[in-house]
Amino acid sequence: MANMPRSKGYRIIAEFSIHPIGKGTGVSSYVRTALAELRKAKGLRLRVTPMATVIEAERLSDILTAVEAAHESLFRQGAKRVDFFLRVDDRRDKARRMEDKVRAVQR
Amino acid sequence: MANMPRSKGYRIIAEFSIHPIGKGTGVSSYVRTALAELRKAKGLRLRVTPMATVIEAERLSDILTAVEAAHESLFRQGAKRVDFFLRVDDRRDKARRMEDKVRAVQR
Amino acid sequence: MANMPRSKGYRIIAEFSIHPIGKGTGVSSYVRTALAELRKAKGLRLRVTPMATVIEAERLSDILTAVEAAHESLFRQGAKRVDFFLRVDDRRDKARRMEDKVRAVQR
Amino acid sequence: MANMPRSKGYRIIAEFSIHPIGKGTGVSSYVRTALAELRKAKGLRLRVTPMATVIEAERLSDILTAVEAAHESLFRQGAKRVDFFLRVDDRRDKARRMEDKVRAVQR
Fold first, then answer.
1. Cα(B18)–Cα(B31) distance, rounded to whole angstroms?
2. Orientation of helix D60-76 relative to helix D28-40, angle to 10°
3. Mean model confidence pLDDT for chain A
4. Is B106 exposed, middle or buried (CB count within 10 Å of its CB: 0-12, 13-18, 19+)?
5. How large a percentage of chain C has pLDDT more than 90?
6. What residues of C are in contact with residue D80 (Cβ under 8 Å)?
7. What is the DSSP string of B3-61?
């Protein structure tokens, strides 16, 4: 699916969190697998936080493709049930990067 | 990206919520637009709840394609900033439909 | 903390989803326990959906008290790790019930 | 509302995001107000990310009290509709801080 070309400088900022259900209380080996898929994806900037991974991209389709790859990778690692959540913030009246959002609320 | 063919009967169950920011406190005309996009999409069963739309599908890619179309439709309607959230529950050790999840917790 | 008395007819609408991590792929017995706590709570209307429980209340504090009780109940049932998510929509310029939100987007 | 005393070293890690609907596309002055409330609260460690604020606490009730205060503060600032989301991760089989979660997935 094609995304419209975005105006220069506009970025989508999202956050993504994923874990298997039924693979014990420690899930970090699965999260590492998901992160490896995100890092392989094109066009993404990533920042890992204690609760999610923040993703910045010019195109929503790049984020969704990476999320789908990350999701599938957990089943290859042996998970039988996987839950993820994705929150997307797309603002087209103002160019900004992920750092700008943090700066704006800490002034 | 291609999704592997899913075993017969296995369904992904998700929920999706979207709204514009900066278009007044009432956002239902935008939510209707997003819902119209979801209804046009192939392979989805939908149920509208007071806080989100529940989506059932055989393929995650069908859900993501529909979500992307819904997202883009709000900008065409005039929104300058759009936020959405998507939660996905994919269980591959047991066939179930969205109704089964409700039944299981109300027994 | 005390919540201000709300104007007559104004309701907060929320959704809540909870599950243990590390207790197998099937978690419905835990969700039933959480729901039992929500049903014991005062001042809540509930509707179970395939992905969450929608909660309507006059006071946010009633929702938070019930969520805390539900959360604690999963540990009593044996969970070692519990994740929940809560989304709250509080609109004070228009009286509405949970059914109104569904109706508004299906017109 | 009483929370059981937690074992030494165990921390709840959460993330919280809030914004007004209907106050323009730029909402950072409202997010700053919410953050000021979180900073006044007792017993919380905070880290602002581009999509949310990560909160660490010994007691869930401290997080919920702070979230309720943050929520109410946006109405005092003039918002007529406020949405927030809160995700909580409570693990009681292993002591950890928010930094440990990031470290574990970046090894």
1. 7
2. 140
3. 92
4. exposed
5. 89
6. 91-93
7. PPPPPTT--EEEEEEEEESSS-S--HHHHHHHHHHHHHSTTEEEEE-SS-EEEEES-HH
The side-by-side arrangement of strands in the sheet containing D53-57 is: C44-48, C53-57, C12-20, C81-91, D81-91, D12-20, D53-57, D44-48
Report CA Rg, chain C: 15
Which of A106, C104, C54, C13 minimizes the C-alpha distance to D33?
A106
CA D62 to chain centre: 10
Query: Which residue of B lies nearest to D25 if distances are taken between CA atoms?
Result: B22
* Cα–Cα distance, B46 to B32 (Å, whole number): 13
Interatomic CA distance for residues D12 and D31, integer angstroms: 22
pLDDT digits (tens, 9 = 90+) for A37-59: 999 999 999 999 999 999 999 99
Closest CA to D10 of D88, D65, D86, D91: D91
Distance CA A56, CA A17 (A): 14
Q: Which residues contact D76 (CB under 8 A, 6 or more apart)?
A: none
ipTM of the complex: 0.91
Residues of D in contact with C68 (CB under 8 A): 1, 3, 60-61, 64
CA-angle at B15, arms to D104 and B35, nearest 5°: 140
pLDDT for D66 equals 98
Contact criterion met (CB below 8 Å) for A56 and D59: no
Q: B19 to chain A nearest CA, in Å?
A: 10
Tell which residue, A54, B55, D73, has the closest CA to residue C3: D73
The subunits that touch chain C, with at least 3 C-beta pairs less than 8 Å apart, are: A, B, D
Provide, rounded to the nearest whole percent, the portion of chain C with pLDDT above 70: 93
Question: Is the CB of C80 less than 8 angstroms away from the CB of D86?
Answer: no
Burial of residue C96 (number of CB atoms within 10 Å: 0-12, 13-18, 19+): middle
Taking the whole predicted model, whether its pTM rises above 0.90 is answered as yes
Tokens of C80: 């070692």
| CB D24, CB D78: distance < 8 Å | no
Residue A23 tokens read as 């693979």
